[in-house]
Amino acid sequence: METVKISTDFIKLDALLKFSGMAETGGDAKTIVQDGLVSVNGEVCTQRGRKIRPGDVVKCGGAEITVEAG
Predict the structure, then answer these.
(1) Residue 2 carries which DSSP code?
(2) Cα dihedral 8/9/11/12 (nearest 10)
(3) In what order do the strands lie in the sheet with 2-6?
(4) First and final C-alpha spacing in the chain
(5) DSSP letter string over 9-66?
(6) Overall pTM surpassing 0.90 (yes/no)
(7) Helix axes 26-34 and 13-20, enclosed angle (nearest 10)
(8) Domain holding 33: CATH number?
C-alpha cells in the first residue's frame, strides 16, 4: 500500500491517479475511471472528478493508495 500526502483539502480522482503513477496521462486516468477499474473506499467509482480527501483509500489494478493530509 502506498501513501500519498496532499496539502489541500482534496485532490480530484483523475489527478491522484496521474500523481501517483497509476495512470501515465490524464487521458489514461479518464479511461481507467470510466471503465470502472477504480474503487474508492471499497466502491467502484466512475466519476473522474470525484474529490478524494485524507483518509480515503483508492484501489486500481491491484495497487492501493491511502491519502493523508500533508
Answers:
(1) E
(2) -140
(3) 2-6, 63-69, 57-60, 38-40, 43-44
(4) 17
(5) S-EEHHHHHHHHTSSSSHHHHHHHHHTT-EEETTEE---TTPEE-TT-EEEETTEEEE
(6) yes
(7) 120
(8) 3.10.290.10
| Cell numbers representing residue 62 in the block | 491491484
- Quick: pLDDT tens for 42-60: 999 999 999 999 999 999 9
Domain count, the chain: 1
49: phi then psi, degrees, rounded to nearest 5: -95, 10
Number of residues that this document lists for the chain: 70
Give the domain range for residue 7: 2-69
- Residues 63, 22 contacting (CB under 8 angstroms): yes
Contact yes or no for 51/10 (Cβ under 8 A): yes
Cα(66)–Cα(2) distance, integer angstroms: 6
